[in-house]
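User: My advisor asked me to double-check a structure prediction for AAA family ATPase before group meeting. I don't want to rely on an old file, so could you generate it fresh from this sequence?
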Amino acid sequence: MSALTYLKQFRLAGMVKSLELRLTEAAGNNLSHREFLDILLEDEKTNREDNRRKKLYGRAKVPVQKHIDEFDFAFQPSIKKQEILNLATCAFIPKGENIVFVGQPGTGKTHLAIALGLKALGYGYVILFTTAHDMITTLQAARADHTYRRKIEYYTKPDLLILDELGYKTLAATTVEDFFEIISKRYEKKSTIITSNKEFPAWDSIFFDKTLTTAIIDRIIHHCHTVIIKGESYRFQNRRKDG
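Assistant: Sure, here is a fresh prediction for AAA family ATPase from the sequence you gave:
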C-alpha cells in the first residue's frame, strides 16, 4: 500500500494535498527524513486549523463582514478608539466579561459587535450572532416542539454570544423568562455582546417584568464594558450627503 493511500486512510488531508510538492522540494533541497516529516506535519496542522476556522465562521451566523479598521471613529468621537482596540484583543472572553453597546440606530453598534466577533473567531473562539428577537422567537417555538433544552444549550454553549437589536422590537411579556435563562446560564462563564437602542433604566419597557429585568441587568453589568454612543446615524449622514 502506498504512502498516499495510508494518508487518505488516516484522513490526513493536509498531507495528501502537499505530498507531491513536498517530495519534490525534499529531493531538490536534500532534506533529511526528519525535516521532510516536520514540513508535512506542519501542512497537516495548517490544513486542520483552516478547516476549523471555516467551520467556526459557518456556525457563527455573522450576517456581514465588518472590521474595526473600517470604523470611522472620527465620526463617532464619543467612542474611545483605544477602548475598542483593547477589547479587540478578546481578553474579556476567557474572563466571561460582557460588552453592551448603546446608541440610536445607525451609530455603529452592530458594526463594532460584529468586528469584535470576527476578532474572536480569529483567535479560535466559538461565536454565535443573532438578533435578540430571533433568539426569543426560536426559544418560544422550541417550547412548542419540545426542543427547548437543546436550543438553550445552542445559545449558552458559544464562547461569545452576540445579541443584536435588543429593544428594537416589542417582546411578549412571557419571553423575559427565556432571556433570563440564557443570561443566567452564561453568567460569569461565557461572554455576551449586546447592542441596544435603550440604556439600562429603560429595559423595563423591553421585558415588562421589573423583577426579572433587574436580575438580567444585574448579571450583565457585573462584569461588563458599557459603550454608550452619542453620535449621529451613519445612514442619515450618508442620505444628507446624497441629497
